[in-house]
Amino acid sequence: MNRTQRKRHILRTWLEVLIAGIIYLIVISFTSFRIPCVFHLLTGLDCPGCGVTRMAYSLAHLHFREAFAANPFVLCLLPFLIPYAVYRTRKYIDGKSSQYSMIEVAILTILLLGAIAFGIIRNLPS
Q1: Residue 1: its pLDDT value, please?
Q2: CB-hemisphere CA count at 13 Å for 115?
Q3: How far is Cα 23 from Cα 73, in angstroms, rounded to an integer?
Q4: Three-state secondary structure readout of 77-120
C-alpha cells in the first residue's frame, strides 16, 4: 500500500468512526438504548471504561463537570491520547515501522496499570 492509499484508508476509517459516533450520540439522545458493559453485566462491578458513553455525551454538550464525574480517568487521558493517536496515524501514513518503541511500551504499560488501579479504586466500598 502506498502513501496515498494509506491516507485514504485512514481518512475512511476515521470518517466511519466519526459517523458511527454521531449516530450513536443521536440514538442515545432520543432513546434509552445504550451499549451495555459486558464486564459490568457479568460482575456487577464498573470496569475502567464504564461511564465513557456518559462522558462523551456530556463532552458533546460541553458539560465538563458531568464528563469528569462519569469517567475521570479517561477524561484526563484524552489530552494525551489524542496527540498519540495522531502520531501513530502519521507513522502509518508515512509507512514507518508499526513497532512500538521501548518508551511507548513503557508508557502504555503504565497506562494499563493505571486503568487497572482506577478500576479497583472505583469499586471500593464508599
Answers
A1: 84
A2: 13
A3: 25
A4: HHHHHHHHHHHHHHHHHCCCCCCCCHHHHHHHHHHHHHHHHHHH
Residue type, 97: S
Q: Which three cell numbers stand for residue 85?
A: 493517536
Cell 491520547 identifies what position?
A: 81
C-alpha cell at 125: 466500598
Q: Which residues, 6+ apart, have CB-to-CB distance to 60 below 8 Å?
A: 25
- pLDDT for 97 equals 84
Are 70 and 51 spatial neighbours (Cβ–Cβ below 8 Å)?
A: yes
C-alpha cell at 8: 485514504
Dig out the grid coordinates for 39 from the structure. Answer: 464486564
Question: For residue 98, is pLDDT > 90?
Answer: no
Calculate the average pLDDT of the chain: 94
